[in-house]
């Protein structure tokens, strides 16, 4: 993910209400947990047009690509743009044709500092508990978390 394609602030009402609750790990930084079905996702076989519409509808710049319960890739605005530029008919192509399959996964129990190299590479952190996808953390999410801790 390019640094310019950072997910927009994604603080949800449930996150605001749960700000006082704490897991004591990286789950505390995930604004839209996958287990709560709050994460906006796309499937590899869905069209790029569907993915783009979903991004616009939810005001986000990237989507995890899920095959059932398993994360298989990420798709951001740059991936879509690079795939369709010069041939708009390619919006009909499947997400799998444009997604990035090399993922920056971070264990849920890793320290917050483990996010910094991921962000330095311009990526979004994909938080995992073993093989289970928990959600995404962006730079904005980390900043929101740090700001909330200030009180």
TrEMBL record:
<feature type="domain" description="CBS">
    <location>
        <begin position="35"/>
        <end position="91"/>
    </location>
</feature>
<feature type="region of interest" description="Disordered">
    <location>
        <begin position="1"/>
        <end position="28"/>
    </location>
</feature>
<dbReference type="Pfam" id="PF00571">
    <property type="entry name" value="CBS"/>
</dbReference>
<dbReference type="InterPro" id="IPR046353">
    <property type="entry name" value="CBS_C"/>
</dbReference>
<dbReference type="InterPro" id="IPR000644">
    <property type="entry name" value="CBS_dom"/>
</dbReference>
<protein>
    <submittedName>
        <fullName>CBS domain-containing protein</fullName>
    </submittedName>
</protein>
<dbReference type="InterPro" id="IPR046342">
    <property type="entry name" value="CBS_dom_sf"/>
</dbReference>
<keyword id="KW-0129">CBS domain</keyword>
């Amino acid at each position: 993910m390019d640094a310019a394609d950072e997910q927009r602030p994604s603080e949800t009402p449930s996150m605001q209400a749960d700000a006082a609750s704490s897991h004591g790990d990286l789950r505390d930084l995930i604004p839209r947990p996958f287990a709560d079905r709050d994460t906006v996702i796309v499937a590899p076989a869905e069209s790029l047009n569907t993915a783009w519409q979903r991004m616009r509808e939810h005001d986000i710049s990237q989507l995890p690509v899920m095959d059932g319960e398993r994360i298989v890739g990420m798709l951001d605005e740059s991936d879509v743009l690079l795939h369709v530029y010069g041939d708009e008919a390619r919006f009909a192509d499947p997400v799998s044709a444009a997604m990035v399959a090399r993922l920056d996964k971070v264990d849920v129990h890793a320290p917050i500092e483990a996010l910094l190299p991921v962000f330095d590479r311009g990526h979004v952190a994909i938080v995992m508990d073993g093989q289970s996808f928990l959600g995404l953390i962006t730079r904005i999410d980390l900043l929101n978390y740090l700001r909330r801790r200030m009180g």
